[in-house]
Amino acid sequence: MAFSDFELSVDVARIQKDISITLQDGVGVAQFVAGEAQNLGQQTVANPLEENPSHALVIGKKTKAVKRKIRNASTFTMREEFS
Question: Which helix (H) or strand (E) holds 9?
């Protein structure tokens, strides 16, 4: 199920200029505002990687209610739409 990992790996949109680089064919991206996750008791932490400087983590237990609220606050785009 989406948004389940205790340490959810994400990219910060204002840093990641070409999101298609980090996506595989046939998958997409869910975009949500960090404040939405923070309002649900999640911690958002920058975690830049050498190969992905926009990498960050959303840390915290993702209950069914938290996962549903993040999903409902998200917009979804398939990788092909970025090309």
Answer: strand 7-11
C-alpha–C-alpha distance, residues 4 and 13, integer Å: 20
How do the domains of the chain map onto residue ranges?
Answer: 7-82
pTM: 0.79
Query: What is the per-residue pLDDT across 27-74, written as a single tens digit (0 to 9) for each?
Result: 667 889 999 999 999 999 999 999 888 899 999 999 999 999 999 999
**CB 16: neighbour CB atoms within 10 A?**
18
Tokens found for residue 72: 């409902």
More confident residue, 35 or 24: 35
Query: Distance between CA atoms of 45 and 24, rounded to whole angstroms?
Result: 24
Classify 67 as helix, strand or coil: helix
